[in-house]
Amino acid sequence: MIRQWCANQEKAARNAGVSLRISGHALKEQMQQAGFENISVRAFKIPIGIWPRDEKMKRIGVAQMVAMLEGIEALTLGFWVNCLGWKEEEVQVALALTRPEFEDKKIHSYWPLYVALCPRHVEHSSLTLIGMRCMGRSR
Questions:
Q1: Where are the alpha helices (DSSP H) in 20-87?
Q2: Alpha carbons 31 and 139: distance in angstroms, whole number
Q3: Number of domains comprising the chain
Q4: What is the DSSP-derived secondary structure letter of residue 121?
Q5: What gap in Å lies between CA 127 and CA 120, rounded to an integer?
Q6: Chain centroid to CA 57: how far?
Q7: What residue numbers bound the domain in which 78 lies?
Q8: Fewer beta carbons under 10 A from the terminal one: N or C of the chain?
Q9: Which residues of 96-134 are buried (b: 16+ CB within 10 A; e: fewer)?
């Protein structure tokens, strides 16, 4: 269900005329277009859930899992109703099926996170932009 949730989020975003996906390369290009130079982009995988073996990553995963469990309705309801034409009850059923997967150790969900670092721009203070997109992978 996480994959379906992600796919529906992407479809709703497209219907709204925006994209939830950004690559490190695209982030760097956007920073260059804004006038920044000497940009370095770092990629991270932010786990969602208790599945990581590494204790630090497990703590991060727990925090992300709690954020998703508590915030998934706010991230989804208006988006799917207004951009996909779903009824509120249909969204609630889909969310009820999706939430348990964030707690399943067999499902290794994560957010790819891209961070652009660069020196101070002439017209702006130093800036870090973050790009995230939704990914889920079953094991």
A1: 24-33, 55-84
A2: 35
A3: 1
A4: P
A5: 7
A6: 17
A7: 2-138
A8: C
A9: eebbebbeeeebbbbbbebebebeeeeeeeeeebebebb
Is 115 in contact with 42 (CB distance < 8 Å)? Answer: yes
- Give me the count of residues in the chain: 139
Cβ(28)–Cβ(39) below 8 Å: yes
User: Distance (Å, rounded) from C-alpha 42 to C-alpha 23?
Assistant: 11
87: tokens are 């009824």
